[in-house]
Amino acid sequence: MAFEYLYLLCFILFEFLLSSTIAQTSRNVSLNSSLTAQNNVNSSWTSPSGEFAFGLKQIVKDGFLLAIWFDKIPEETIVWSANGKRLVPQGSKVELTSDGQFVLNDARGDQIWSANSSGTGVSYAAMLDTGNFVLANRNSTYLWESFDQPTDTILPTQTLNQNGILFARYTKTNYSTGRFMFTLQSDGSLSLYTTNFPQDSRRTKYWPTGNTTNGFQVILNQTGHIYLTSKNGTILYTIISPNSNVSNENFYQRATLDYDGVLRHYVYSKSSLGMWSASPNVVPSNICAAITDKIGGGACGFNSLCSVNNEGTSCTCPSGYSSIDTNDVLKGCKQDFVPQSCDAGEASSDSFEFKDLENINMPYLDYEHVPGVPKDWCMQSCLEDCFCVVAIVNNILDCYKKGLPFSTGIIDPNIIGTKALLKIRKDNSTLTDGSPNSKKNGSVNSKKKDDSTLIIVGSVLLSSLGILNFILPLITYVVVSRIYSRKAEVVQHYQVIRGVNLRYFTYEELKQATDGFKEELGRGASATVFKGILASDKEKFVAVKSLVAKVRESDLEFNAEVSSIGRTNHRNLVQLLGFCNEGQHRILVYEFMSNGSLASFLFGESRPNWYQRRQIALGTARGLLYLHEECSNQIIHCDIKPQNILLDDSFTAKISDFGLAKLLRLDETRTTTGIRGTKGYVAPEWFKNLPITPKVDVYSFGILLLEIICCRKKFDEEVEDEDQMILADWAYDCYKQKKLHLLLENNDESMEDIKKMEKYVMIAMWCIQEEPSLRPTMKNTIQMLEGTVEVSIPSNPSYSFTSSFL
Ligand SMILES: *[C@@H]1O[C@H](CO)[C@@H](O)[C@H](O)[C@H]1NC(C)=O
Ligand SMILES: *[C@@H]1O[C@H](CO)[C@@H](O)[C@H](O)[C@H]1NC(C)=O
Ligand SMILES: *[C@@H]1O[C@H](CO)[C@@H](O)[C@H](O)[C@H]1NC(C)=O
Ligand SMILES: *[C@@H]1O[C@H](CO)[C@@H](O)[C@H](O)[C@H]1NC(C)=O
Ligand SMILES: *[C@@H]1O[C@H](CO)[C@@H](O)[C@H](O)[C@H]1NC(C)=O
Ligand SMILES: *[C@@H]1O[C@H](CO)[C@@H](O)[C@H](O)[C@H]1NC(C)=O
Ligand SMILES: *[C@@H]1O[C@H](CO)[C@@H](O)[C@H](O)[C@H]1NC(C)=O
Ligand SMILES: *[C@@H]1O[C@H](CO)[C@@H](O)[C@H](O)[C@H]1NC(C)=O
Ligand SMILES: *[C@@H]1O[C@H](CO)[C@@H](O)[C@H](O)[C@H]1NC(C)=O
Ligand SMILES: *[C@@H]1O[C@H](CO)[C@@H](O)[C@H](O)[C@H]1NC(C)=O
Ligand SMILES: *[C@@H]1O[C@H](CO)[C@@H](O)[C@H](O)[C@H]1NC(C)=O
Ligand SMILES: *[C@@H]1O[C@H](CO)[C@@H](O)[C@H](O)[C@H]1NC(C)=O
Which residues are ATP-binding (predicted)? Predict the structure, then answer.
């Protein structure tokens, strides 16, 4: 976008070339006329002056747009279009039929678009010099006008009436409806809104800050003023006034809602080849600051930077990030470096550094705010926190932490004293494994390094405050030593492990069973899983999970925890068969799950059927209920996610890795980072110093349930629009708009069962409420899933899901 202020430069010079050539009459298009789309041929009907043309404009290879454009300007300037959402191929035809219908048919003759002139009495069509294309009857009464169906532009003499809408296009060269709308509503108020792309429905108003009332028409007059009038013609509100003298004789002009959400007035000198230049008076004056939607990433999408300059809106990516789609900068940016692992293994301070960005504000989506701390503290805290990617500091010693994705950073020289500290990886190359996609195969008990973490269980109070950081290790020490003394008793009984169907294996046995630990099923920071077959039962495979030596448990405690896991027994839990605790070797032996993990099942090539998915949701819920309420020691899983739900031969869901949290208590010095779990599934309590209760699993289950419903990952950069990237936001949006079918594209079965699916979405919304006490228990959840209890209308989960993602 290059807007230069040619306004002042070139308008008086060419006044003498004036209007003698502007014809007032129109060339009529008679019935039975048509235009056919043909590659490399511009077929059009032009206005008498030749300034405007109507026809099929080639936009991409074999893609044509039925449009009206400025025909004397080399720069392609389309002011109206009919089929931006669906371009037509070569051979398509726009036709004014002998009975007065005006239709666009594709090459096969299927109707793509038609003018709803209700057909009666059209006797000719005409491209007028105003840029209006009309269908008229014999008396020259207009039965249909393109001016009444504007797309993103209004021209002089064109008015936008009540209920009129301009939709921004999707990108500069993509004429599909985009993310913003300008509308004069039937109550007389005029506003710019973001839309629920691609649903076209309005969402958040971003201009004007006050209200307008009694509006009747928006007018762009001949001298370039855009204003709102009331019914009696008085000017209520000047929207844009040009900063120089403009006249229709000297200039082409237009007002366009651009794809970046800004309404601009453009002029182009008729007498010299130049370029469109925009008046610096634009609406809104600073789009970066105007878009305050909590959903979506802001004016430039997630993880981006936004600034407004003379050339328009500038969307860039901070260092370490790059554009998700270079053809669509509003889609935001993605991290280029391998994200910090939440596993204890990664020493953050060695691998990450900060890049300072001055004059910047990121007002939304912090997951933590600590007032009154120095910058160094804030940096250290962010460095040690695997969820933190940006820290914001200011003159009054606030520290804000943000996770991925973060909302657009507003760059503005007027923002003084607020600084963004961007945490980026120092050196990419030292990383050997751990790229998020390096291991995609879901398999038994597999753990991916990037997002698997083993967890502490219990009511650990997380703290971000320095004092608690100091106290916490102390508390931990006390707790741990008490556990030790208590567990010592259990161990007396261990040798027998009565009532627990656990086998003890020697290392040698397991080495044989796995053929020397040959076939690896998965690997994480804390464990590696191998496939094996036991000598005692040649029929059955087992999964042998070898825990890393770092495990700091004593023998006693290890054995005690294992037997506690071994005591659990439920159809929806992966059964622990036995273990080995020999020297350095701590190994668990589980039943083998032939159908891999729910992650590969849901996100794989073929989409599993809805019935199976419902059974899996229910099975997982039952397994969790057992862990929370029915087994002898309550177990909070803390890491419910599709990778940890495995499927047996008959696709029964089985939860794996429960109890491991306690078993694999990791390096206790890392209490500052506290959070355990997997990005995107962790409940807000983890960030807020609140006690950890079984409700954290309910939260994770809610996210999982949405993934099961939609067969989509919780966060997906590949989707069309940033509004859809975060599944939970998108789902609530669709639910609220009563457009749930949008969630289910290409998902016919669940479409048929849309009532049930709506109920499931509502249940998920309850599960992911920010306030833990609002979330149902697993028992309630099951009752709702089974239909024995009604589901009430959920409120907006409101937690900014975004703060915990990627
Ligand atoms: C177009 O058609 C109308 C109605 O038939 C007629 O009045 C008008 O003169 C025609 N204009 C031109 C330029 O032929
Ligand atoms: C339209 O074209 C068809 C065939 O090309 C012809 O039979 C018909 O008479 C034409 N009608 C008019 C109103 O010109
Ligand atoms: C069609 O129009 C475009 C721009 O308006 C121009 O660049 C192109 O040369 C034209 N093609 C033909 C075949 O006239
Ligand atoms: C054409 O469609 C628009 C929008 O759908 C509607 O407002 C208008 O009344 C229709 N006009 C006719 C003549 O049917
Ligand atoms: C055209 O105008 C005449 C006289 O004003 C009227 O009688 C006739 O019904 C009109 N025809 C149409 C098609 O509107
Ligand atoms: C325009 O963007 C939409 C939405 O991303 C996409 O579906 C469509 O294919 C694009 N059209 C063109 C011509 O690139
Ligand atoms: C603007 O209108 C909305 C809806 O009519 C109303 O809720 C709001 O309070 C109004 N704001 C002002 C500043 O008048
Ligand atoms: C356009 O509107 C402005 C502001 O209301 C007014 O000063 C100007 O005279 C108008 N121009 C025309 C040609 O009506
Ligand atoms: C026009 O309408 C506005 C409000 O709708 C009112 O304040 C004004 O007095 C009216 N002007 C005339 C000339 O009727
Ligand atoms: C616009 O034109 C008026 C009268 O023609 C003149 O007084 C004024 O200075 C001009 N404004 C600019 C910015 O050129
Ligand atoms: C870091 O490594 C990833 C994956 O190996 C690569 O795609 C990316 O471009 C690298 N980023 C930087 C900043 O070097
Ligand atoms: C996934 O498993 C299949 C079959 O077991 C194997 O061919 C493929 O190489 C594996 N892919 C990865 C990334 O490990």
Answer: 550
| Catalytic residue annotation | 639
Q: What is the pLDDT of residue 798?
A: 59
Mutate to test the pocket of ligand 12, among 435, 437, 440, 441 (most ligand atoms within 8 A of CB): 441
Q: Rounded to an integer, what distance in angstroms lies between the CA atom of residue 753 and that of residue 738?
A: 15
CA distance to 256, 296, 699, per residue, from 195 (Å): 17, 11, 28
Strand partners, 63: 60
Pocket lining: 441 vs ligand 12, CB cutoff 6 Å: yes
Q: Per-residue pLDDT for 390 more than 70? A: yes
Rounded Cα gap, residues 150 and 166, in angstroms:
6
448 half-sphere exposure, CB direction, 13 A CA radius: 21
Residue-level pLDDT at 728: 85
* Rounded alpha-carbon distances, angstroms, from residue 2 to 276, 277, 549: 8, 8, 60
Report CA(28)–ligand 1 centroid distance (Å). Answer: 6
- CATH placement of domain 150-285: 2.90.10.10
Per-residue pLDDT at 143 exceeds 80: yes
Q: Whose alpha carbon is nearest atom 10 of ligand 9?
A: 232
Indicate the CATH number for domain 598-805. Answer: 1.10.510.10
Spell out the domain ranges in the chain.
22-147, 150-285, 294-435, 438-493, 503-591, 598-805
Q: What tokens appear for 536 in the block?
A: 């005692």
CATH of 503-591, one of 3.50.50.60, 3.40.50.720, 3.30.200.20, 3.40.50.880: 3.30.200.20
The amino acid present at 556, given as its one-letter code, is L
CB of 211 sitting under 6 A from ligand 7 = yes
Asked whether 31 lines ligand 2 (CB < 6 A), one says yes
One fold for both 22-147 and 503-591?
no
Q: For residue 169, which amino acid is it?
A: R
Query: What is the per-residue pLDDT across 483-531, written as a single tens digit (0 to 9) for each?
Result: 333 333 333 223 334 456 678 888 998 999 998 998 988 876 677 889 9
- Position 198 scores a pLDDT of 63
The CATH number of 22-147 is: 2.90.10.10
Residues in the chain: 806
Under CATH, which number does the domain 294-435 receive? Answer: 3.50.4.10
pTM, rounded to two decimals: 0.69
Chain centre to alpha carbon of residue 184: 29
Report how far ligand 2's centroid is from the alpha carbon of 99 (Å). 10
232 within ligand 9 shell (Cβ under 6 A): yes
How far is CA 8 from its chain centroid? 43
